[in-house]
Amino acid sequence: MLPGTDHVVQIKAICKVFRVGFLGRRVTAVDQLSLDVRRGEVFGFLGPNGAGKTTTIKMLMGLIYPTSGQATIFGHPVGDPAAKAKLGFLPESPYFYDYLTSREFLNFYGHLFGLWGAALNKRVDELLELVGMTHARDLQLRKFSKGMLQRVGIAQALINDPELVVLDEPMSGLDPIGRKEVRDLIFRLKESGKTVMFSSHILHDAELLCDRVAMIMKGRLVACGQVSELIQQGTTQEVEMVIDRLSPEGLEHLRVLATKVVLSGERVMVVLSSQRQVDESLEVIRVAHAKLVSLTPHKASLEDLFIREAKGLQLPVEARV
User: Fold this and answer.
1) CB-based contact 9:197 (threshold 8 Å)
2) What tens digit of pLDDT does each residue of 227-249 get?
3) With CB atoms counted within 10 Å of each terminal CB, which end of the chain scores lower, N or C?
4) What pLDDT digit, counting tens, does each position of 105-146 carry?
5) CA dihedral 30, 156, 92, 203 (to 10 degrees)
6) Which of the 8 DSSP states describes residue 217?
7) 212: enclosing H helix or E strand
8) Which CA distances in Å does 319 have to 16, 19, 307?
9) Are 215 and 301 in contact (CB under 8 A)?
10) Boundaries of CATH 3.40.50.300 in the chain?
11) Which CATH number among 3.30.70.3180, 3.40.50.300, 3.40.50.150, 3.30.590.20 corresponds to the domain 7-86+162-230?
């Protein structure tokens, strides 16, 4: 079967209800969630903090059990050894014994998967090179930065050469350099033919990386599909112009056309919401003998979709889980 046409992960109407407090109040963390992840894609699982992303991933990993619904990985029930053998996982807040070196750390996880001797040493060297940590192979983890720990954590998730890699908030807490390093790693995993599913509340990273995304809020699925399709649903694309030495008459013409006009000395910034307005504004600039400094289209983004869905979601406030 061709990559991208079969389902690696399938979630069907899964729910998770927790009992909290002395009286055992019911809190719904995940509510009738259904989605799938296809072979060979980078799939983003998005939502604000407390939306239910980590709870869902814990159910997929077999760490907690759903209240209702079902999920499969490679067609096997969650927790089946046949599925786990093809799976690599990095939790959101992993704990690594920090007196191990990165080589010792990966050797330990390799032993858990039955790797020994020359085969394991070769695999460890390959992974340290893949994540850019060869220089720190004999450095104790307690001396690592957050970005270095994330990279060696991803190497741990790859020790068994899995077909599916699940990363829970891999960019959380990283500086811009660390986030770029993790993004580059995910791109390389996709190029090597692996399926990657990662959760995040950093929408820009997901927009750069993902083939498809699912967005959940308060445990419910609010959007799912290809990024290019989702970001154009109901979102107006605007164009920003910056103009120098525009005459008063030209400025009055632009006030009629633009949705926003900002004056700064001899410079004018206008925001236009249609191609017709852009064309007419360019003609006004030409007739007025003004200077067009810049013309910048503002394309739709996942952030626009996120804000729109958040404003439209009318659900009772629930505790974060």
Assistant:
1) yes
2) 878 876 645 578 889 999 999 99
3) N
4) 999 999 999 999 999 999 999 999 989 899 999 999 999 988
5) -90
6) E
7) strand 212-217
8) 13, 11, 20
9) no
10) 7-86+162-230
11) 3.40.50.300
Q: Are strands 164-168 and 87-90 parallel, antiparallel or unpaired?
A: parallel
Distance between CA atoms of residues 286 and 305, nearest Å = 36
Answer CATH for 238-298 from 3.30.70.260, 2.170.16.10, 3.40.47.10, 1.10.8.80? 3.30.70.260
pLDDT band at residue 311 under the 50/70/90 scheme: low
- Which of 81-91 are b and which e, b meaning 16 or more Cβ less than 10 Å from the residue's Cβ? eebbebbbbbb
Kindly tell me the sign of the dihedral angle through the C-alpha atoms of 180, 212, 218, 199: negative
Parts of the chain belonging to CATH 3.30.70.260: 238-298
CA 111, chain centre distance (Å): 31
Whole-angstrom distance, CA of residue 219 vs CA of residue 27: 10
Residue with tokens 């000395």: 265
Eight-state DSSP code of residue 64: S
Bridge partners (DSSP) of residue 239 are 272, 297
pLDDT band at 166 (very low <50, low <70, confident <90, very high): very high
